[in-house]
Automatic annotation (TrEMBL):
One of its GO terms (molecular function) is ATP binding. This is Sigma-54-dependent Fis family transcriptional regulator. The keyword Nucleotide-binding applies. GO terms for biological process: regulation of DNA-templated transcription. Residues 254-484 form the Sigma-54 factor interaction domain. It comes from the Bacteria. Keywords: ATP-binding, Coiled coil, DNA-binding, Nucleotide-binding, Transcription, Transcription regulation. Residues 577-604 form a coiled coil. Gene3D superfamilies: 1.10.8.60, P-loop containing nucleotide triphosphate hydrolases. PANTHER family: TRANSCRIPTIONAL REGULATORY PROTEIN. It comes from Persicimonas caeni.
Length: 618
């Protein structure tokens, strides 16, 4: 049975909240989410469901945070499942786990797990992230029968797809199999859509309903009702603010944790406890390596090794060898047995940075490694080895764009995109700049055994005002530079605003330097000479005196008097002997001579200019 509403009558809308609920349900019906019988009254049982839905919408609207609203939604969904007389759902089935996943196609934003009173561990639902690729592909409710390994689409004709069979749209990967091998007998996945009908996340409910193995459970009518509830609550749920940040405990690996990073760190802390592949995306210098090491320290593998494979530093032809290892004689230059990164990380974590740089053949090898958890050392005839490793991968590019360009395997993309997290740039974490600067200065002072150095408040304010396209790496460079400059000038052990300004001035300037301008002017002069030479009339180097003439001319224009201008450029002695007028007249003549010569060359025609350009390139 489906929730049926009478459109056109608001007799039941006795309160503002009830009217709002009715409006949402009517909008959902118009969007194709609800079916109705024109002119019919509410069937038996529906008024009670309507009242529960109205109460849910009130609780979600009044929730102080997205996290609280998500729990309210999951409890309400479980309530609809338990009070199921009018939806013909069998007794004895229990909802054991739930989760709300808020994410885009690129990265997670929130993950709210919830364990119901019937038992189970809330943390287990983290692995339901494996199902994201399916719901994003179909954008409709899905049921997974974990015993029969079937995916059921309850809408329409109730199509069943065997996960063990080859199918274009689904594949039973080893990681999905590990997820399905748990207490739940059935898993319901409900898409979470925003007002524009874009996929904003998903809601998963896990059932212990052993008596319903082989049946379509939950029944299609109940699934449609649950999807309606999610659709009705979504507009309010998605506008709830995140929980107020309580701060995050820092340590040696995580010395700074500002409010902006707290939601990201909460996600990472949840993901760290599980063995699935974690993808860290973010600009160069945002601290992905540090975060990967921190995740390892939070994981059950913390006592194991942490290995880093930075593909930026490895020739492409050696990617496979460095990953898998090799035996002596496996290839030219292999003079000894060498353990690969997978072997060295056994029992721990392997962080593969710059994953987008991975060579094509190594992409295939990594795909098999992630799927089968086995690998073969190059040149080893002894068979495959088991890989007891948790993988974290990092990238500073949009991997999907690499997939679309044919540079990255699509199947590998989906294997590593289970738990994607976007690391914000430092400019988005301005609340951390001062703390990072203090940490970096203390570290630098300790390394140099230079005592206890501090930043002045004005120095920190100056750092906070800056943009940091190079992120933490750039900030560290500037802090080191300020420390060197401050020590060189002597005085108290404090970095001042003046030290910061001098250090910042040495960064890549936004405008070209005077040397750059002079080089361009010299290049233009030579190009003009080449053009003239093409007609047998080269330029005389004396015409370059016009450069000095322009400098003097600008000094005069920018000074209150000619005397001050000459003094500005070191020619004050000419003023004393009254020779500066003659020198200024000479500057004007030099400028005019070059302008005349330039006009003559340009009059020689464009063909000569093109020939000269090519000669200059040669």
């Amino acid at each position: 049975m489906t929730l049926v509403f009478r459109v056109g009558s608001c007799t039941e809308c006795a309160t503002t909240a009830q009217s709002a609920a009715f409006d949402i349900l009517q909008s959902s019906r118009q969007a194709g989410r609800l079916r109705h019988a024109n002119g019919s009254t509410f069937p038996s049982g529906v008024p009670a469901m309507y009242a529960r839905l109205r109460q849910l919408l009130e609780r979600v609207a009044n929730a102080s945070s997205f996290e609280q609203a998500s729990v309210e939604l999951m409890e309400a969904l479980a309530g609809f499942c338990r009070n199921n007389d009018d939806l013909e759902a069998p007794r004895g089935a229990e909802v054991v786990h739930g989760s709300v996943h808020l994410r885009s196609s690129r990265a997670y934003r929130r993950l709210i797990p919830h364990a119901f009173a019937t038992g189970g561990k809330a943390g287990d639902v983290v692995r339901s992230a494996e199902l994201w690729s399916w719901v994003s592909r179909w954008r409709r409710a899905l049921i997974i029968d974990t015993a029969l390994l079937q995916v059921i689409i309850p809408s329409g004709d109730g199509e069943r797809m065997d996960l063990d069979a080859s199918h274009d749209d689904i594949e039973l990967t080893a990681s999905v199999r590990r997820y399905l091998d748990q207490q739940a007998s059935h898993i319901l996945v409900l898409p979470l859509l925003d007002l524009s009908q874009a996929l904003a996340g998903m809601v998963t409910l896990e059932f212990d309903a052993a008596d319903q193995i082989g049946e379509v459970f939950p029944p299609p009518a109940l699934v449609e009702t649950l999807q309606t509830v999610v659709d009705a609550a979504a507009p309010r749920l998605l506008t709830r603010p995140p929980r107020a940040n309580q701060g995050f405990e820092t340590d040696e690996l995580l010395p700074v944790a500002g409010p902006t990073m707290t939601p990201v760190l909460e996600l990472l802390a949840a993901f760290a406890r599980h063995g699935e592949t974690l993808l860290l995306s973010g600009q160069t210098g945002t601290g992905k390596s540090r975060l990967a090491r921190w995740c390892h320290a939070q994981s059950p593998r913390a006592d194991g090794p942490f290995e880093v494979l930075d593909l930026m530093t490895i020739p492409e032809t050696m990617h496979m060898a460095r990953l898998m290892g090799w035996k002596r004689g496996a290839f030219t230059g292999a003079t000894s047995n060498v353990d690969g990164a997978v072997s060295r990380a056994h029992g721990g974590t392997l962080f593969i940075d710059e994953i987008d740089k991975l060579s094509a053949d190594t992409q295939a090898g990594l795909l098999q490694l992630l799927e089968d958890r086995s690998y073969r050392v190059l040149g080893d005839n002894g068979g495959d080895r088991r890989a007891d490793v948790r993988f974290i991968v990092g990238t500073n590019v949009d991997l999907m764009s690499q997939v679309e360009a044919g540079r990255f395997r699509r199947d590998l993309y989906y294997r590593i995109h289970v738990l994607p997290v976007q690391v914000p740039a430092l400019d988005e974490r301005s609340d951390e700049i001062a703390d990072w600067a203090r940490f970096m200065l203390a570290r630098c002072s300790q390394q140099l055994d230079a005592g206890d150095w501090k930043f002045s408040e004005s120095a920190l304010l100056e750092l906070e005002k800056q943009s940091w396209p190079g992120n933490l790496r750039q900030l560290d460079n500037v802090v080191r530079r300020t420390h060197i400059m401050a020590r060189a000038r002597g005085g108290e052990a404090a970095v001042t605003r003046a030290d910061v300004l001098r250090a910042l001035a040495m960064e890549n300037p936004t405008a070209p330097s005077i040397s750059d301008h002079l080089r361009r002017a010299a290049h233009a002069f030579v190009q003009l000479a080449l053009t003239g030479d093409g007609h047998g009339r080269p330029l005389n180097l004396e015409l370059a005196d016009a450069f000095a003439g322009h400098v003097l001319d600008q000094a005069v224009k920018c000074s209150p008097s000619k005397a001050k201008a000459f003094d500005l450029v070191g020619l004050g002695n000419l003023v004393e002997h009254k020779n500066h007028y003659r020198r200024y007249r000479k500057a004007q003549e030099d400028i005019a001579a070059l302008e005349r010569r330039e006009a003559q060359v340009h009059a020689m025609g464009p063909l000569a200019s093109e020939e000269a350009k090519h000669r200059g390139a040669d």
